[in-house]
């Protein structure tokens, strides 16, 4: 009795705007890769079951647009928190970070010496 799994034939199927063209002999994660055509026209390779399940719905073109929009939204939110290149909420924060060994913000040990410094307008200033 043959119990081997037979891969499904997705040839010519259009799923979420992705057309599965042909099965290749290459494998990824134990599954055969399919040559696919995205709705934008790009050719890419993906596992057929992942396209059929809806895990993959483009060649990556839709993610690029989504990332660009999110980055723009994040920049707009953070814009008010910067003054002359300095992130004000970080200066106002009184909490000491977990990896801090001195107990004071901006103070660290280099060799046998303790060094204190701050960063203002993207420039590191040593305190003496």
How many domain modules?
Answer: 2
Beta-strand content estimate: 35-45%
The run of helices and strands is: EEEEHHEEHEEE
- Gyration radius, rounded: 26 Å
Largest sheet: 4 strands, antiparallel
Regarding quaternary structure, what we see is single chain
* Principal-axes shape call: elongated
Q: Which structural class do you get from the secondary structure elements?
A: alpha+beta
- Indicate the low-confidence ranges by residue numbers: none
Mean pLDDT: 83
The neighbouring-strand order within the major sheet is: 1-2-3-4
Number of distinct beta strands:
9
Helical proportion, percent range:
10-25%
Kindly list the characteristics that best describe this protein.
alpha+beta; three-stranded antiparallel sheet; 36% strand; single chain; 128 residues; 2 domains; four-stranded antiparallel sheet
Model description:
This protein has helices at 48-52, 61-79, 88-92, and strands at residues 14-15, 18-28, 31-37, 43-47, 82-83, 86-87, 107-110, 113-120, 123-127. The protein folds into 2 domains: 14-63, no CATH class; 77-127, no CATH class. The strands form 3 sheets. The protein has a 4-stranded antiparallel β-sheet. It has a 3-stranded antiparallel β-sheet with strand order 7-8-9, with no helix packed on it. Strands 5-6 form a two-stranded antiparallel sheet. With 128 residues, the protein is of the alpha+beta class.
Quick structural gist:
The protein has 128 residues and is of the alpha+beta class. It has helices at 48-52, 61-79, 88-92; strands at 14-15, 18-28, 31-37, 43-47, 82-83, 86-87, 107-110, 113-120, 123-127.
